Amino acid sequence: MKIKDAEVVVCSPTRNFVTLIIHTDEGIYGLGDATLNGRELAVAEYLKEHCIPALIGRNPFDTEDIWQYFYKGAYWKRGPVTMTAIAAIDVALWDIKAKALSVPLYQLLGGKSRDGVLVYCHANGTGLSHSIEEVHRHIELGYKAIRVQSGIPGIEKTYGVASKGKKYEPATRGLPQESVWSTSKYLNFIPKLFEAVRNKFGFDIHLLHDCHHRLTPVEAARFGKDAEPYRLFWMEDPGSEELQESFRLIRNHTTTPIAVGEIFNSVFDCNKLITEQLIDYLRMTIVHGGGITHLLKTAHLAEIYNVRTGFHGATDLSPVTMAAALHFDMAIHNFGIQEHMPHEPLVDEIFPHAYTYKDGFMYPGEAAGLGVGLNRQLAAKYPYQRAYLPVNRLEDGTVWNW
Ligand code: GCO
Ligand code: MG
Fold first, then answer.
1. Is 36 exposed, middle or buried (0-12, 13-18, 19+ CB in 10 A)?
2. Enclosing H/E stretch for 236
3. Ligand 1 atom nearest residue 339's Cα
4. Domain spans of the chain, in order of start
5. Which atom belonging to ligand 1 lies closest to the Cα atom of 210?
6. What's the pLDDT band for 264 if we cut at 50, 70, 90?
7. What are the pocket residues of ligand 1 if the criterion is a CB atom closer than 6 Å to any ligand atom?
8. From residue 282, how far is each of 69, 205, 330 by CA, in Å?
9. Whose C-alpha in 49, 188, 255, 378 is 20 to 30 A from the C-alpha of 43?
10. Pick from 4, 120, 13, 6: which is nearest to 377 by CA?
């Protein structure tokens, strides 16, 4: 089998998605997600101009060699744009391989290690009582694990919280929106939120929280200590991750489990975090972490050090990534949990898929390959629109991590 051609489809059904389609001479095609939120066209061009011409004629079964060709062979290694492009190629090739062998992808990654994939959803409230209502609504939907985010008294807009009556979506069209952040207001409020949620719903439900990179190491340590009585499943991205050793300080002060890595793109972003056991869950995911080939190696390293996976699964990761993640989650031993932020019905219509949700768990389905299609006619009706993630500032105007 040979790669005959490849194309990049960019569409914007409520938000932007970049999809790579690789065609083979035997008529089998594979899909890869290449969406990098707010930087979509950089990856689309990288693929079109620098990768696709060098893909033609290769054997799609050579996933390892093709991965190394675009990674080591490019001289310029790593970085989100490069690694997202490589991930799209890699996932499309695994899709082709599994389709050619007529098996669902998880069969090639180790087979079934579990019956279903535990997922967590988002309960986002504008304030304490609304957050409690949202937790209740998601418990009714069967979720066993819920990430709780809330508007903070005294802060106008908070990460993870939708404006009234709307679904939360971090990127917005036009130029970047700006928000203002106060760590002290946040740290004063969040323990009260989790106290209220535990008082109302008890300890049988898993609760998670995303700090979205905003705390310094010592503030994160304090957050973790304050959260201990509420037994969080994890605190996510407590602070900026560039300095891996900074997690030692957080770790030394709290038993609240730590999850990081949704913006990582290589094992070299988390090698110390893993081997020094500074984290509990790794969020680096297939689309931004170099694809299945690289994530398998990273997850296997993590397994040795008791670190489990907790893949990023926000709506900016297309159904193609969701499917790839679910096959991966099903197969590896050190799976922890999977984020599930359901896509809009229009997105599901453009990417029809075999995966399903039931009672707090997801299932990749038994279709050959990833089990995801692309309705190109419908996608073409929603052309790309420039969109950005917000920019964050402290109350005095200093730019801060969003
Ligand atoms: C999460 C994330 C997202 C990101 C978004 C950025 O935990 O789901 O933090 O909501 O902000 O994916 O592109
Ligand atoms: Mg996050």
1. buried
2. strand 234-236
3. 8
4. 3-104, 108-367
5. 7
6. very high
7. 37, 170, 210, 212, 262, 312, 314, 316, 339, 389
8. 26, 21, 16
9. 378
10. 13
Q: Is 294 a catalytic residue?
A: no
Domains 3-104 and 108-367 agree in fold? no
pLDDT per position as a tens digit, 48-102 = 999 999 999 999 999 999 999 999 999 999 999 999 999 999 999 999 999 999 9
Q: Is 159 a catalytic residue?
A: yes
What residue type is 198 in one-letter code?
Answer: R
CA–CA separation, 290 and 192 (whole Å): 39
Q: What is the distance in A from the centroid of ligand 2 to the CA of 191?
A: 19
Phi, then psi, of 309 in degrees rounded to 5: -90, 155
CB–CB of 205/146 below 8 Å?
yes
Note the pLDDT tens digit of each residue in 117-143.
999 999 999 999 999 999 999 999 999
The atom of ligand 1 lying closest to the CA of 212 is 9
Which residues 6+ apart lie within 8 Å of 14 measured at CB?
169, 344, 346, 347, 382
Architecture of the domain whose range is 3-104? 2-Layer Sandwich (3.30)
Name the active-site residue from 71, 143, 159, 186.
Answer: 159
Closest residue by Cα to residue 34 from 22, 23, 19:
19
**Whole-angstrom Cα Rg for the chain:** 20
Residues in CB range of 188: below 8 A, 6 or more apart: none
pLDDT digits (tens, 9 = 90+) for 284-311: 999 999 999 999 999 999 999 999 999 9
Q: Binning pLDDT at 50, 70 and 90, where does residue 150 land?
A: very high
CA angle 400, 145, 318 (to 5 degrees): 65
Q: Quickly list DSSP for 322-372.
A: HHHHHHHHHH-TTEEEEE--PPPHHHHHHS-BS-EEETTEEE--SSSBT-B
